[in-house]
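Think of the structure tokens as a kind of shorthand, similar to the way a musician reads notation: each symbol stands for something richer, in this case the local conformation of the backbone. In the example below we present two proteins back to back. Begin with the first one, reading the sequence and then the tokens, and try to describe in your own words what changes along the chain.
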Amino acid sequence: MDKKQKVTINPVVITVGLLICSNIFMTFAWYGHLKNFNNQPWIVASLVSWGIALFEYLLQVPANRIGHTVLNVGQLKIMQEVITLCVFVPFAVLYLKEPLKLDYLWAGLCLLGAVYFVFRS
């Protein structure tokens, strides 16, 4: 007899995936207007950013709820910061055409230290 097997995905994997997607939306909400709406009044940029941020929250809230079943709040926050840097650097370089700086590497190394301290047990 062939029994159906239930496939389960690790909550950390789901959390990371949702946080990556939410960070993409939030990076566009926070910084996309600098390229696309720099000639518009700030209120237009704000309203567009709020609209984009709604999608970010629709992903971020479930990500944190799912992640909190296996991680503490500090771990969730540091994970989010690492993901933010991993999303922001390519966005800044490729989309906003900012120069790639060595400072991003140093920031990443500092975050690795934060990861170590928050995830050690």
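Once you have a description of the first chain, move to the second and do the same.
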Amino acid sequence: MEDLIDGIIFAANYLGSTQLLSDKTPSKNVRMMQAQEAVSRIKMAQKLAKSRKKAPEGESQPMTEVDLFILTQRIKVLNADTQETMMDHPLRTISYIADIGNIVVLMARRRIPRSNSQENVEASHPSQDGKRQYKMICHVFESEDAQLIAQSIGQAFSVAYQEFLRANGINP
């Protein structure tokens, strides 16, 4: 528990990111299908990039060695060589973590500023059942520690929740 408060670092390869539309609270099965779709998109983008030397816009970046820095407040992705922050997601924005073999998919809700035009777009393009949809950014990583990374992120949620309860005078 103390480790998560100070932060845990895992080495991984960042394979790329993609965006998906999602209902606010999809089932676990739907989330897993979304994670698999994100992996498929990234792998397809990598194949396309290799074959024509250029990736589709917004679908892939070259594989980069990174450090995943997991804390109870946030998850940071640091360039392994320079230690520059590439991504920084508050833990509360993470909606799903999947480990698929040696692949980790980290799904985070995108903050979309509210404006009349945005609400009109959502109102004119509702999902099939009429619920509002949200943009999810899906980051795909490869690591031998994929399962351990996913477990550590889950534990970070648990520890953060216990800390929240303590801070509010509730016995966890």
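Compare your description with these statements about the second chain. Residues 34 and 40 are 10 Å apart (CA to CA).
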